[in-house]
């Protein structure tokens, strides 16, 4: 065995993020508490922006780096760029300190017992949790690697690097800490469970193909060596692991609990970025490695897509908590992406890339708006409290309505173009019946989005309703950017669609 | 790529063509400025809605100015179009490429032809008059600026709808008018009924929109495009099954927007909006978008006789339903709304007759736009004088107190019931002729409709302007200011001469539209003079019955019990009950059962307890009693299903 | 099928060892019972008192366990590198130094945050 060659230049975005995360840990160790917060925020933002610049400079690359373990190609770079943009906005939301009287959305020390004297002292002294930034950077690093992983081992490592920090972040809410910790534990247990299943599937696939590289697995499929039973079981189990991460039915049950319990900025980050990364990995795995056996996995994905769209849309109808509603909405959106996934061609890849980008932006914005509607107990997430918000704070309500309309796929929002592109991709790929279900599901989904809009604009405000907090520049800029992008991509989607189109070719 | 595609499509359109087979030219000169039509009101809306309080003082003037500018532009384009040869009056101008997803490309391009210019003039002309009228009507409303902003937004969206050269772009306008409509129905959101009505309109329209989306999806599947030129040119090559399906999907979309059976229920509630809105959106323009859609899709319906039959049936049912509902309503606006449904039913029916009826559908649409807007604004004027009273049983004898409103309203009345030479006579008579020429049943339905129309309009007229005075206020109601009566005069004038002028001025509307819609003549089963006589006799009979019931006898202020049919009609012929039974109940059961499964079967704890923040510690204990376990079990079940699904696929 | 024969053999061997050793201790072991024997096994020291029905462990145990894992992983990777040191050359050396550095970072973090102080 000889020394491998590593293409450092092509892997620069990953190295930057991981390096910054390590620096973040050292900052925790050595920098005094008082200045830790600004330093951490600065390091995180600098690293993310630097990585974004590196990704942009790499645009157009199509190669396999690190001895075939990491692909640097269109889909990977597109998703990495999108994830980095979303992560920059997320970090800005993490850094918001005006809403909690000098604190942020996180518990000062996640290890203190909820309701204990120790916790009260920390809150009084305005202690800040700064470990979230290195954790977020590690998660982002994993997310960048996940859609780029080109062999099974790297895929699994990326999955874990992405997930472990997220489990922690979920348990760090400042308010309703028990709910938050419960969410974290549930997410961890179920995540570990799904990782185990995923790993089990990997073992089967390796048992069939005798290799870990996607390209070589694809060749093994063509050569048709080994036993089909092992392969099919392996692909099925790996699919489960990935479907869990994207929140597809029947592997969705964690989503509402975790989305509700996690600190809202983390929920937004998770809902937007994890879904992007997981779909990216899924598309690469299924198109590049298992593309030769698509007739085997397409029917399974059909069923999952139908179940996901319908369960997501229908169950969302009865939700009374805004975060849970958005969670079910995200489940339904996973179903819409799956419709294009079934088509399994380059058009579908482009459509998925575009959809994910628009969905991520709108999701992040929507959750950020949720952080601003507050009452004495923190965020007022019960829907009844949102009644009449449009009269008290028309701009905020209109912004939220814009995001909801984008989710509903109303024309002139980015969501419409996204749905259009995934549905046309699905039709082209021969999945027209799936599109019919998709159209019905999105009509159902439109009801509950509109219910919220009607509630905000046409209902009388509750007497002890929440107030709309005035955010600092961090959140304000983030939400404004999200809203502007949602509208702009609805009117002139051409450039981004072209970009997605150009970026839709996988390197093998 | 795009330009070659559209050039190719143009070439195809020139060769084979659809309907009349008119060549579509690239827009040059003044036609290249078509986008200004939309830009003016859009700019107006932007200024009014984003400008904030600074524009409060001049808001209404900006709104009117934007609409009138667009109208002037429309007239200029119309005049320019007259200068072109009759088969070369269609122009496209591409604005930008909207979507390019793989093989599917959508351009935002505008198509200006004889059909769309007719709509442009109706929308901007009647729209401008209603803008002017609203200055007076909304004078005391503190949110008047916003109201004008919404009106401008509506006009812009409606123009996009009729100028679009691609179904997808049309759909954007379609949703845009919907949005403006919900905003305006719910404009007085402090009224609970207005909020409910807005919501209902939205919900019902989603069903219609689903039809639109399915139609477009089918087009992408069959033709690979939603552009008019490509779809129409290649429609002949598609199988009849697909063309029929597309026709039916489009019909579903049209039913939602145009309040046709079975999606008619929202229109009556929509009357909660300010009256100018009812006149502009829910009488003259937006609700006729469905008819536009069907006529525009002539090339598809020409190839799908089954879909056309469905259109005729829907039109016939709605025209009778709307008329019957109109007979029983005591609310003046709801009576007019029933009438609108019924008249659109006429148009839909005519459109369903194919090339023989397309032009007449549009003809009636235009005259209806004149006289119905006229009457709605008249009703608004009455309400203005009567302190927003809408119950006709509290009116009576208003012709003396409000002479201008009475005279202008009477013009509209004579037009709608079809007395020659008023506008409605020409347009409705043409539809009745075409219907009889097609078959006896539709002919009789239209004839019966004409009789009922005469009845309920006479009833409305008598209850409002004649008979004993039933209002309670001490001083007599005052006539509206001239800013409101001037538009009434203008519309009354159009109600009088509009029909005659459109039919006989120049070559007439039928020849004007022929290059777009095609032309076809049927033989009448009886001499024309006989049919006209029968029609007029029916109308006179309707008037006479109404006079016997409401003119000779004093109108009671309380609501009489009425026959079962009257009761049914008062309840909108149980449209809501129908919706509830057919759509809502099954939907609710589905939702409940799914939610039941999600809650009880899977995540029982959280829904119930997440909201009630009582025992936090007990929540932690709950955690240990194994709800994660039940999630994990679900997942494991899912794993089994997925792996099994993978294996089963390979089996055969 | 031949390829799986060794695995089957291993499974068999493990089963024999597990069952066998338990059975053997029952047969051969002396039958004396006292308190120390019935207590839970904690490296020969006095067991920490525990409430009935499980109860909580001090979090310190986990910290110690994780510190152990840090070094454990380090060893696992160091060993094969040492074996192939000649072939991997400078690349391997740099990689290993980086790795050791990265392993040290959490250790430093633990130390600075007081994870190594036993009250």
From TrEMBL, chain A:
Signal peptide: none annotated. Pfam families: Proton_antipo_M (PF00361). The keyword Nucleotide-binding does not apply. Residues 149-444 form the NADH:quinone oxidoreductase/Mrp antiporter transmembrane domain. One of its GO terms (biological process) is ATP synthesis coupled electron transport. GO terms for cellular component: endomembrane system; plasma membrane. InterPro entries: NADH-Q_OxRdtase_suN/2, ND/Mrp_TM. GO terms for molecular function: NADH dehydrogenase (quinone) (non-electrogenic) activity; NADH dehydrogenase (ubiquinone) activity; quinone binding. Its EC number is 7.1.1.-. It is a multi-pass membrane protein. It is found in: Cell membrane; Endomembrane system; Membrane. Its main location: membrane. Keywords: Cell membrane, Membrane, NAD, Oxidoreductase, Quinone, Translocase, Transmembrane, Transmembrane helix, Transport. The chain crosses the membrane at residues 12-31, 43-71, 77-95, 132-149, 185-209, 229-254, 266-287, 299-318, 325-344, 350-373, 394-414, 434-458, 470-492. It catalyses: a quinone + NADH + 5 H(+)(in) = a quinol + NAD(+) + 4 H(+)(out). Belongs to the complex I subunit 2 family. NDH-1 shuttles electrons from NADH, via FMN and iron-sulfur (Fe-S) centers, to quinones in the respiratory chain. The immediate electron acceptor for the enzyme in this species is believed to be a menaquinone. Couples the redox reaction to proton translocation (for every two electrons transferred, four hydrogen ions are translocated across the cytoplasmic membrane), and thus conserves the redox energy in a proton gradient. NDH-1 is composed of 14 different subunits. Subunits NuoA, H, J, K, L, M, N constitute the membrane sector of the complex. PANTHER family: NADH DEHYDROGENASE (PTHR22773). This is NADH-quinone oxidoreductase subunit N. It comes from Jiangella ureilytica. The lineage of its organism: Bacteria, Bacillati, Actinomycetota, Actinomycetes, Jiangellales. The gene is nuoN.
Automatic annotation (TrEMBL), chain C:
Signal peptide: none annotated. InterPro entries: NAD(P)H_OxRDtase_bac/plastid, NADH_UbQ/plastoQ_OxRdtase_su3, NDAH_ubi_oxred_su3_sf. One of its GO terms (molecular function) is NADH dehydrogenase (ubiquinone) activity. It comes from the Bacteria. Its EC number is 7.1.1.-. Keywords: Cell membrane, Membrane, NAD, Oxidoreductase, Quinone, Translocase, Transmembrane, Transmembrane helix, Transport. The keyword Membrane applies. GO terms for cellular component: NADH dehydrogenase complex; plasma membrane. It catalyses: a quinone + NADH + 5 H(+)(in) = a quinol + NAD(+) + 4 H(+)(out). The chain crosses the membrane at residues 6-28, 61-82, 88-109. It is a multi-pass membrane protein. It holds the Pfam family Oxidored_q4. It is found in: Cell membrane; Membrane. NDH-1 shuttles electrons from NADH, via FMN and iron-sulfur (Fe-S) centers, to quinones in the respiratory chain. The immediate electron acceptor for the enzyme in this species is believed to be a menaquinone. Couples the redox reaction to proton translocation (for every two electrons transferred, four hydrogen ions are translocated across the cytoplasmic membrane), and thus conserves the redox energy in a proton gradient. NCBIfam families: PRK07928.1. NDH-1 is composed of 14 different subunits. Subunits NuoA, H, J, K, L, M, N constitute the membrane sector of the complex. Belongs to the complex I subunit 3 family. This is NADH-quinone oxidoreductase subunit A. The lineage of its organism: Bacteria, Bacillati, Actinomycetota, Actinomycetes, Jiangellales. The gene is nuoA.
